[in-house]
TrEMBL record:
Domain of life: Eukaryota
Name this polypeptide is given: Ion transport domain-containing protein
Record organism: Rotaria socialis
Leader sequence residues: 1-25
Spans annotated as Disordered: 193-214
Entry keyword annotation includes Signal: yes
Lineage, broadest ranks: Eukaryota, Metazoa, Spiralia, Gnathifera, Rotifera
Amino acid sequence: MLFVNVLLINLLIAMFSFTFDSVQSQTDLVWRYDRYALIREYFDRPPLFPPFIILTHVAELIKLILRHSPKADRPTMRRRQAKIFQMIATSREVDRDWSEFESYATNLYARTIVSGQPSSSAALVPSTARQEATQITLDQMSTSQVSPNLDMKVITDEIASIKRALGDLRTHSEEMNRCMQWMIDAMERVKMSKEPKPKLRSARTTIDLQPVDE
């Protein structure tokens, strides 16, 4: 019985997860349909609230009877009763901006369908992150044009750094040789070994490093 309960709970969790993933993958589409339904309901709902809504229904019934009566002027009644939900721009500039926005949104949706990528309402407005990414790309393109000079400068700096490191190693090796020589001389004075003391080679080589111009 416990095993069956665990299986049922897992099945319930899987169903909820599947539903959540399905809704999340189509969030923008669901939001658009819900927004349309809300606006449509607000536009088509009667002006009165229950129980006074019966008056609105009676008025609609009377209009329907008049509309189907043989004496009614059908074109005039049709024009008078037609409901059109339309947003009218206050100026030509606003109308032009709306047209450009609709064209941009249509092109974006078409590209999204072709590429198979999910669309979102945030993609209609350029974000700061996309602007920064574009600026970084432009900076990289401008930097790539002067890359040969930068590469030569980097190589020169690396060579100078290697020469300085070799000089430091040579100095450290000479100090180590002096310390070892001092220890060997001290051990020879106290006669700690019958073997002759070894000879230490100098840290300097035949190739002398040239000073680096800073």
